[in-house]
Amino acid sequence: STQSTGVMLLLLLILSLLGTQSYSQITGTVQWNNPTGIKTSKITYGLDAFHCFEPNIAGTPGNPTYKANLAVMGAGILRCHNGGQQGQSTATNAGWVDSPDTAQYSWDVKKITNALTGSYPYGPDIMLDIVNWPAYLDDGEGHLKKEYYCLLYTSDAAD
């Protein structure tokens, strides 16, 4: 079929880019209606959902085209990841924090709820990355201020 031939030509192109100097053209077929019996889990395929922090795109009210397109791709796992997540919630699309530059910083619960509610109705697993901390907790050099470090140990480890 045309699709199988295209896959083979792409494979040959990749091999040529890897430094393979000689190759032979081969013909291959894919029999989509004849499964091998080997199955994978739904998380074999995943996507990085950059806009998952934004209620107007991913959640409520959301963007129906965005949601429909993700559903068509059918990723079993969506990784919600955006470096702007710790930004001021009212100033940035991805920000989820109120007053990130002050000691009174807090999560914007309403925005977070709206971003996640109804976000991916086709049912993928969601991995939510917390990629950094509010600006108030930063030491000015990109590190967490030492007074916010936590030491976790058991009584056995303390001995």
What does this protein structure show overall?
It is elongated, with a radius of gyration of 23 Å. With 159 residues, it is α/β, with parallel strands linked by helices. The chain starts with a helix and ends with a helix. The strands form two sheets. Strands 1-2-5 form a three-stranded parallel beta sheet, with no helix packed on it. Strands 3-4 form a two-stranded antiparallel sheet. The chain is 24% helix and 9% strand. It contains four helices and five strands, in the order αβαβββαβα.
Key features of this structure:
159 residues, alpha/beta, 3-stranded parallel beta sheet, two-stranded antiparallel ribbon, 4 helices, 24% helix, 9% strand, elongated
Structure summary:
The protein is built from 4 helices and 5 strands; from the N terminus they run αβαβββαβα. The chain is of the alpha/beta class and 159 residues long.
Approximate helicity band: 10-25%
| Percentage of residues in strands | 5-15%
Based on CA atoms alone, the radius of gyration comes out at: 23 Å
Mean pLDDT: 82
Q: Characterize the overall form.
A: elongated
Assembly state: single chain
**Largest pleated sheet:** 3 strands, parallel
> What distance separates the N and C termini?
68 Å
> If helices are DSSP runs of H or I spanning 4 or more residues, what is the number of helices?
4
Poorly predicted runs are: 151-155
Helical/strand content category: alpha/beta
